[in-house]
Amino acid sequence: MFKVVALSLALAAPLAANTGTPVITVDPAVAASKAEAVNWKVDVVHSELHFSIRHLISRVGGTFNDWSGTITADPNDWSNASVNIVIKTASINTKVEPRDNHLRTADFFDAEKFPEITFKSTSIKRNENEIVLAGDLTMRGVTKPIVLKGRFNGIVVGDKGKKRAGFSVTTSIDRTDFGVSYNRVMEGAGIALGDEVKITINLAADEV
What we know:
By secondary structure, this protein is of the alpha+beta class. The chain is about 15% helix and about 55% strand. It has helices at about 1-20, 30-35, 95-105, and strands at about 40, 50-55, 60-65, 65-75, 75-90, 90-95, 115-125, 130-140, 140-155, 165-175, 185, 190, 195-205. An eight-stranded antiparallel barrel has the order 1-4-5-7-8-9-10-13. A hairpin with a 2-residue loop joins β7 and β8. Mean pLDDT is about 85; it is low at about 1-35.
């Protein structure tokens, strides 16, 4: 197909020169990249989405049990790739049920009013194995840009003969930027919770 397009443009060039019609050129690398873009689905069973926050002088971590994600990317060129992640807020899991129930309330995530947390990428930059993933994070109805940095783990052929891609990235956000500002003062210990939340994503995605 690509050779046919190139040949057609070559044959059209002399005619365009004679008629004054402008010639539209196609960058082969760009066209090939767009043509080879494929869809990938995040394998959540073999992926990890983790967060942690300071509690007094230690840290408390957790994850979400119900989340999904898709990637659209050329396996050979991720410069035009896009990543979309959807997290079901009520599925939060810190391994302590009373705490999880509190986190679902309006003090924190307000899961009933805001059932989803989403991330939509705006750019992906890759330099060999280094990756910078920028995008918009939406939580409690507030959207803020964030940047995740980490490692591109490569592409392999999975069990079903489909390509599998993976990367590991981290970032930190200020929870108060998203309206999650609940806190309390512990006698003799000060403020219970920190504002900075560290996020780690180890992601594996299969070609659809």
